[in-house]
Write a structure and sequence with these properties.
disordered N terminus; 11 helices; 15% strand; two-stranded antiparallel ribbon; 263 residues
Length: 263
């Protein structure tokens, strides 16, 4: 079986039922990953879409004491392609603002790059330059970005650009997975487990992360935009399970008492 076939199969699996969280919880491989403490700042955290940073690294962000600079690559306007892109972008920006407020009573410095959602790869060189500039200007001691093997095209492109910018500036770079927990399985040979590390989360950080995730209404509940009033309303009819982008089974991967990064 070729690597290309493996990747195509895994990418298709994003649309299929994923690996249940109980399978991950029963695997002792996660418990055996070396633990690392929260990094010291300044830290630049890159997200392909508003919510990636909270899902993959939010519990650790809540613990950081140094400056945190968040770089949101796209506005996430492609999450609901049948709805007005501008309205979705504004909604997701507001959701992220509320989520960050729930993570910690502090000011996060945010950088929105407005690269088109679902098309980050076409702008990868530009993104690399922009991230290198942010790393230099902030004096970042660490860059944290999406996993380059996540098999979501935007996540991978954002992760590659961050890695390239980090090399240019001599900044260490960690990568957090999002969709990997869905399509991969315990011990999956496609995952670089030898570079994986655990970031334990105290109970208060877990609680703040869960509170933050709750603010991503557009992603965790079915909803429609009311074009007459401009408000967001939950779907009136009982939705099919696949109308929710991040259903409870998916969120379970991101509400563990630890987070995982590849270093």
């Amino acid at each position: 079986m070729t690597e290309t076939f493996d990747r195509e199969t895994a990418a298709a699996a994003i649309e299929a039922p994923g690996t249940p969280e109980e399978h991950w919880a029963a695997w002792d491989g996660l418990a055996r990953l070396p633990a690392v403490p929260p990094p010291s700042g300044p830290v630049v955290v890159v997200a392909a879409h508003p919510d990636d940073e909270v899902l993959g690294f939010g519990g650790t962000m809540a613990q950081l004491t140094g400056a945190i600079h968040l770089v949101t690559v796209t506005d996430g306007e492609g999450s609901h392609p049948h709805l007005p892109a501008g309205r979705i972008a504004a909604l997701r920006a507001a959701e992220l603002e509320h989520a960050l407020g729930a993570l910690a009573p502090r000011a996060y410095r945010t950088h929105r790059l407005h690269i088109p959602d679902t098309d980050v790869g076409a702008h990868e060189r530009r993104l690399t330059r922009q991230l290198a500039t942010v790393l230099r200007q902030t004096g970042a001691r660490l860059c944290v970005a999406p996993f380059t093997g996540d098999l979501h095209a935007d996540h991978e492109a954002a992760g590659r650009a961050a890695a390239a910018a980090a090399r240019q500036t001599g900044t260490p770079c960690w990568h957090y997975p999002i969709w990997m927990w869905h399509w991969a399985s315990p011990g999956d040979p496609r995952v670089p487990w030898s570079t994986a590390r655990r970031l334990p989360l105290p109970s208060w950080a877990q609680a703040r992360k869960q509170a933050a995730i709750h603010h991503f209404t557009s992603q965790i509940t079915p909803f429609n935009l009311d074009t007459d009033t401009g408000t967001d309303t939950k779907a009136k009819a009982d939705p099919a399970p696949d109308t929710v982008i991040l259903p409870p089974a998916e969120l379970a991967h991101h509400t563990r008492p630890f987070e995982t990064v590849f270093i």
